[in-house]
Amino acid sequence: PIPLIIDTDPGADDVIAILLALSARDRLDVKALTTVAGNVQLRYTARNARMVREWANRPDVPVYAGCSRPMLRTPIYAAEVHGAEGVTGVKIFEPKQPLAKGSAVQYLIETLLAAPPKSITIVTLGPQTNLAMALIENPEIRQGIKEIIMMGGAHFNGGNITPSAEFNVFADPHAADVIFKSGLPLTVIPLDVTHKMLTSPERIDRLRKIGNNAGKIAADILDAYVEHDIKEYGLPGGPVHDATTIGYLLKPEMFKGRMVNVEVDTREGPTFGATIVDYYHTTKKPENARWITEGDTQGFFDLLTVQLAKLP
Ligand code: BDR
Ligand code: CA
């Protein structure tokens, strides 16, 4: 199985992503969930990650809390999309199992230093503050990283939080800048693809019809969460952004993209937090990311349905 650390800010779609990852025990060795402030404050994202661990009955997966705010910018949240405490559509509870001791940043540093060379895949599903801070504190952690797969950014699609910026990058552009400049192998799942891979009432219904708790939770969350993007953005269904990254890990053949140069706009102004993607190689700047633009939507929802059936 692929050794994996999931850095996340649950977050409705983060929950679906984590459930999907934890369902694939034979393929993904989830070492830890590291949490960060993003969709809501850190105290909620860390608590929500612990709720998901309990839903999936995976006491073996530690949950760490990391950075409580972005590197430089004023904190922003997305409670209007995900609910005041970050998970809409389900009953919130206080999970029994506590957080792991120590900060997520420290965990990343220690784990990546001790890991065999190029062995660990890191998936980032929120603002990239934790990983950026870890790379700044100890650049030698690079040695343990096989690749980074991030949900974030937008090019062809335009932004979802400003006309030009996607939420995760906008919420900490300086952190994203560190990641894009790191030279580490990087795959980006931007809005360009996630806004094409939408739920439908039928797709959500299939999750509910699995008949287990995980399917019901996923369906309840999606029913509530998709409303925002359908109403506010006029999309025909809801994107399950973060879960798409795990779909990519499990079945990369369902996706298409190309190597490009990406820069993050960290200047104040209307394009603050935008990802500038040199899709046609006009600048001849070195490629630093694989930018995904196409995905097999039905294949993804089929996979999600099959996988969630493996959970309690
Ligand atoms: C991203 O922003 C968050 O609100 C979602 O959880 C996802 O990670 C989509 O832009
Ligand atoms: Ca997220």
UniProtKB/TrEMBL annotation:
<dbReference type="InterPro" id="IPR001910">
    <property type="entry name" value="Inosine/uridine_hydrolase_dom"/>
</dbReference>
<protein>
    <submittedName>
        <fullName>Inosine-uridine preferring nucleoside hydrolase family protein</fullName>
    </submittedName>
</protein>
<dbReference type="GO" id="GO:0008477">
    <property type="term" value="F:purine nucleosidase activity"/>
</dbReference>
<dbReference type="GO" id="GO:0005829">
    <property type="term" value="C:cytosol"/>
</dbReference>
<dbReference type="Pfam" id="PF01156">
    <property type="entry name" value="IU_nuc_hydro"/>
</dbReference>
<keyword id="KW-0326">Glycosidase</keyword>
<dbReference type="InterPro" id="IPR023186">
    <property type="entry name" value="IUNH"/>
</dbReference>
<dbReference type="GO" id="GO:0045437">
    <property type="term" value="F:uridine nucleosidase activity"/>
</dbReference>
<dbReference type="GO" id="GO:0006152">
    <property type="term" value="P:purine nucleoside catabolic process"/>
</dbReference>
<dbReference type="InterPro" id="IPR015910">
    <property type="entry name" value="I/U_nuclsd_hydro_CS"/>
</dbReference>
<dbReference type="InterPro" id="IPR036452">
    <property type="entry name" value="Ribo_hydro-like"/>
</dbReference>
<dbReference type="InterPro" id="IPR006311">
    <property type="entry name" value="TAT_signal"/>
</dbReference>
<keyword id="KW-0378">Hydrolase</keyword>
<feature type="domain" description="Inosine/uridine-preferring nucleoside hydrolase">
    <location>
        <begin position="4"/>
        <end position="302"/>
    </location>
</feature>
